[in-house]
Design brief:
Radius of gyration of chain B: 31 Å
Strand content of chain A: under 5%
Structural class of chain B: mainly alpha
CATH architecture of the largest domain in chain B: 2-Layer Sandwich
Number of strands of chain B: 6
Shape of chain A: elongated
Order of helices and strands of chain A: EHHHHHHHHEH
CATH topology of the largest domain in chain B: Alpha-Beta Plaits
CATH topology of chain A: Fumarate Reductase Cytochrome B subunit
Number of helices of chain B: 10
Order of helices and strands of chain B: HHEHHHEEHEEHEHHH
Distance between the termini of chain B: 83 Å
Number of strands of chain A: 2
Radius of gyration of chain A: 20 Å
Oligomer: heterodimer
Structural class of chain A: mainly alpha
Strand order of the largest sheet of chain B: 1-6
CATH architecture of chain A: Up-down Bundle
Number of domains of chain A: 1
Strand order of the largest sheet of chain A: 1-2
Strand content of chain B: 5-15%
Low-confidence stretches of chain A: 206-210
CATH class of the largest domain in chain B: Alpha Beta
Number of domains of chain B: 3
CATH class of chain A: Mainly Alpha
Largest sheet of chain B: 2 strands, antiparallel
Low-confidence stretches of chain B: 266-275
């Protein structure tokens, strides 16, 4: 039994807050999308909650950026190097083929190197593309008079809405894969437990890694 | 003109002793084919634009008359001033400000007058005024003749008497019942802010009316008499450019198309809204990801045994 400290407390708190926010946003977002924004009143409570939660999401994401830059995690965990490029194929091979034969995961998370190459790509996409784009397009729709006039004049409303909806589908896609991947640890809930308690417990590999 | 103006490939093709003697080379076919495809696709928005498009008012009005019911004495001079200026006669029933119909019956106005009681109690005086609605302007949206236009003065929503046929649809479209029908001219009338100087404001002896710059209060004050949002299909087609269609509508559309394809039921309504490529992406990718995860889990379970 080996315990690795993976997730510091601020990140754990942030992660679960973000999880709640994302679930509320997806729920309200699906409602808004199913009914169509044209059929809703401007004071529809679901619309208001989507807006408020979206603003909370912006704040929470800005906190994550600040924390990640300040703690040095940005370079440590999110930079893609030459090594990741090589490890990517081994990782993909593991998930697609060798996992079924009971092989070891070629990647072991440590405090200094938390994410495998595929995880890095996925998290980079979510944190540096999906969420910023969703945040910016969402903020454009806050009905600020000048922005509203500009969007109407340039005929950009449809485009901005389309981008927002497309990237929200991408986030849903990420969420499905993310939730499934959390069950691929040593036990079904070992990754989830690590995100709550901070320590990842592993049964094997303790001897060779020490 | 000499042979040096002709591209080499063409010369070669013409001089070749081939039984086909093609008019142009394969490369030229590809180049011109590509150019015409690119040109046509660049032109298609212009072609769509050229088709007759129903008028959709996007600009907000710049002014609106607001009323303070507390100081109103119900004298009705505003109604007289209004019809005197706009219709050349004193006809309060035609006035674009409605005081008489609400007199002593509270804010439910004409509705309460039919029943004989106001819902905020009797004995109140409430003026009704055109709100100069923002987009979507209900009366303008429903007008089949596109006769309700933005007036150049203070962007008031005004009726163009040249186009108005007096069908009366706008009377039913306005949630505030602010449009009147003039039986003499057989046209609808509504407040057009008297070319920027509302006569009702000038006539009010109690100082109850003010002409102020328009401000969007949508969402802060719920509408009194909300109507269901019904749009003519041609206009709805225009709205899709800005408002992405709802998925219920999309699903209905898709199922109607399916029913039609399999030879049953009514046909899909023309000019409706279809799936957009984004929803296609979502509708394909999201179930695919879920199915992939499920398959992965099942395979793991099976191989473990």
């Amino acid at each position: 039994m080996k315990r690795t400290y993976l997730h510091p407390l601020p990140l754990r708190i942030w992660h679960w807050i973000q999880a709640g926010i994302v679930i509320i946003l997806i729920g309200t977002g699906i409602y808004l999308r199913m009914h169509g924004i044209a059929a809703l009143r401007p004071h529809d409570p679901v619309l208001l909650w989507h807006t408020r939660t979206g603003l909370a999401m912006v704040v929470s994401t800005i906190f994550w950026f600040a924390y990640t830059v300040w703690s040095g995690n940005l370079r440590r965990h999110y930079g893609l190097g030459r090594r990741d490029l090589r490890g990517m194929f081994a990782q993909a091979g593991y998930y697609l083929v060798t996992i079924f034969t009971g092989a070891e995961n070629p990647f072991r998370a440590t405090a200094d190197d938390k994410y495998n190459p595929l995880q890095k790509i996925a998290y980079d996409a979510v944190m540096f593309v999906f969420l910023p784009v969703l945040g910016v397009t969402g903020l454009l729709f806050l009905d600020i008079p000048a922005v509203r006039r500009y969007l109407l004049a340039q005929n950009l409303v449809g485009l901005v809405g389309a981008v927002h909806v497309f990237f929200s589908y991408m986030v849903v896609l990420f969420l499905i894969v993310h939730l499934y991947m959390t069950t691929l640890g040593d036990t079904v809930f070992s990754h989830t437990k690590a995100m709550i308690l901070g320590y990842e417990e592993t049964d094997h590999g303790a001897e060779e890694e020490t | 003109m000499g042979a040096d103006h002709v591209p080499n490939e063409t010369v070669r093709a013409e001089n070749a002793d081939s039984p086909f003697n093609p008019l142009c080379t394969r490369r030229q076919v590809l180049i011109w084919g590509g150019v015409s495809i690119a040109g046509l696709s660049a032109l298609s928005p212009a072609l769509v634009q050229a088709a007759v498009r129903p008028l959709v008012i996007m600009e907000n009005a710049e002014g609106v008359v607001v009323a303070d019911p507390v100081v109103c004495v119900g004298c009705g001079r505003c109604e007289l001033a209004c019809t005197e200026f706009n219709d050349g006669r004193a006809a309060p029933s035609l006035a674009r400000i409605k005081v008489d119909r609400n007199l002593n019956f509270g804010s439910r106005g004409a509705m309460a007058w039919r029943e004989g009681h106001g819902n905020l109690g009797d004995g109140l005086i409430v003026q009704d005024l055109c709100k100069q609605c923002p987009h979507p302007v209900p009366c303008a949206n429903m007008c089949p003749e596109h006769a309700i236009v933005v007036s150049p003065v203070h962007k008031a929503r005004a009726i163009d008497p040249e186009k108005c046929t007096g069908c009366g649809i706008c009377l039913r479209a306005c949630p505030w019942e602010m449009i009147s029908y003039d039986p003499d001219s057989r046209k609808a009338t509504k407040c057009d802010l008297c070319r920027g100087k509302p006569k009702c404001v000038e006539a009010c002896p109690a100082g109850s009316l003010r002409y102020v710059s328009w401000r969007d209060l949508t969402g802060t004050t719920p509408p009194r008499n909300p109507t269901t949002a019904v749009l003519p299909p041609q206009r709805a087609l225009n709205c899709v450019e800005c408002h992405l269609p709802g998925q219920w509508a999309n699903l209905g559309q898709a199922s109607a198309m399916m029913r039609q394809a399999f030879g049953g039921g009514r046909s899909a309504s023309s000019g409706g809204i279809g799936f957009s490529w984004i929803d296609m992406a979502g509708a394909v990718l999201v179930p695919l990801a879920a199915a992939g995860a499920l398959l992965h889990a099942v395979l793991r379970k099976v191989r473990k045994r």
